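Researcher: Please translate sequence to structure tokens.
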Amino acid sequence: MAIQNSVLTNPSSFVALRTLNGINRSLDTTQNRVSTGLKVAGALDDASNFAISQGIRAELKAIDAVTQGLNNAKGIGNVAIAGVTGISNLLADIRGKLTELANEGITTTQRNILQADFNELVSQAANFISNSAFNGVNLIESGAASVNTLSNLAGGLLTLTSQSSVNTQVGSLAIVTLTSATNAQSVIANNFSNLESVVNTALGSLGAEVRALNLQTAFLEEIRDATDEGLGNIVDADLARESARLTSLQVQQQLSTQTLGIANQRPQTLLGLFG
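Model: Translation complete:
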């Protein structure tokens, strides 16, 4: 038979204390979830799920790095497109000057004026090329290399193709001889035609490649969102549920504290037996 009336051993207080300790541990856990927003904040909360979540977080960082690289490549491509588009817009004016120079009826003075205008236009095209750099990379300058960019976590690549031939053809047009109508007609048929073809090819190629970069970036954003949602399902706390649990535990804590107080007063009743 258990001893119920002892000042040395109080079984009721032991039970009440264990209950209070359990409630306090649960309350600490719930308060931690409410404060962090996480149900798995560390390995002590759930070792396996924490390990999984850490792997997912690393994957999210890698996706962010790939996206950053794609955005940088898009900057390079967009600036190159702007440069080539500027040259393309000049082609109409250049062709107009060449056509006027191909007219045998103009005077020497007129030819000199037209040639000066032509040279200025070609010089402007060269300026467009030299100013078409992004983050130190220029796809349309002389000797430009193609740019390969990581497109996914599996090591796939997207390429921005070098368009240095644009610079080559602009340089070729800059040194032509336009002292006669025949010279001008030859320039139209050869140098100008080559530049026009190269510019159109560059615009088509760069446009398609930058569009591919845009599509891949949008796809990675969707992948990242889905991955982030999956991570949330593993580690995020349901704050509405935790709020209700917090209130419940606080009430239980108060009741358990009162119960422990009653249990601790029990030996006091034994004093009445010795009055």
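Researcher: Any highlights?
Model: The mean pLDDT is 92.
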